[in-house]
């Protein structure tokens, strides 16, 4: 097996793994599959952690994860898929950041790892074992990578920034209740 073949196989495995996990998380949010809470429950959670309106935030996160993950797994529209998934994971990282880095303590380690994998795939491309390759890279042009990542970074900055401002503007008593509620939701 040549290096080029190994690279394509490695990208396929990374796409299937990261894309599959992201798609499953999105399906939890959108449809309540795999033990998820669906749009209603996820919307309530989103509001509890400062993302408003909750249902719209749950829908956006679910679509970014399910759609971005599915497209990554297929290797289709890889720059946009990777950027969308990375943006959703950046939003999740913001929720977990107060708990530190490690996932075992509720930190952002897991979300950040998925964000980096999705970003890396957006930059590296899907490889030859992909729909992008089969379609002649119509949805995977060089200019699409910085465009997709830039637009997503700007949108994510605005959304996370608005969330952080809402949390800062809450009274200290409300913040303690918010984080106690968030912790209880994560333990369910």
From TrEMBL:
Q: Where in the cell is it found?
A: Cell membrane
Q: Would the keyword Lipid biosynthesis be found if you checked this record's keyword annotation?
A: no
Q: Name one Pfam family in it.
A: DoxX
| Keywords assigned | Cell membrane, Membrane, Transmembrane, Transmembrane helix
Q: Does the entry feature the keyword Cell wall biogenesis/degradation, yes or no?
A: no
| Transmembrane spans | 71-95, 107-131, 143-162
Q: How the protein sits in the membrane? A: Multi-pass membrane protein
* UniProt main location, coarse: membrane
**What family, per the record?**
Belongs to the DoxX family.
| Protein's UniProt name | DoxX family membrane protein
């Amino acid at each position: 097996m040549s290096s080029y073949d190994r690279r394509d196989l490695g990208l396929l495995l990374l796409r299937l793994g990261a894309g599959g996990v992201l798609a499953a998380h999105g399906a939890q949010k959108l449809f309540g599959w795999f033990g998820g809470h669906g749009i209603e429950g996820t919307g309530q959670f989103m509001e509890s952690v400062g993302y408003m309106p909750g249902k719209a935030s749950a829908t956006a996160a679910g679509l970014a994860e399910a759609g971005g993950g599915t497209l990554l797994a297929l290797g289709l529209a890889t720059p946009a898929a990777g950027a969308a998934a990375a943006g959703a994971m950046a939003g999740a990282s913001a929720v977990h950041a107060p708990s530190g880095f490690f996932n075992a303590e509720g930190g952002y380690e897991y979300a950040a790892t998925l964000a980096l994998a999705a970003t890396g795939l957006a930059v590296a491309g899907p490889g030859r074992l992909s729909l992008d390759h089969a379609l002649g890279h119509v949805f995977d042009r060089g200019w699409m990578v910085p465009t997709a990542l830039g637009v997503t970074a700007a949108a994510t900055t605005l959304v996370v920034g608005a969330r952080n401002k809402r949390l800062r503007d809450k009274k200290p008593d409300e913040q303690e209740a918010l984080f106690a509620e968030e912790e209880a939701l994560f333990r369910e």
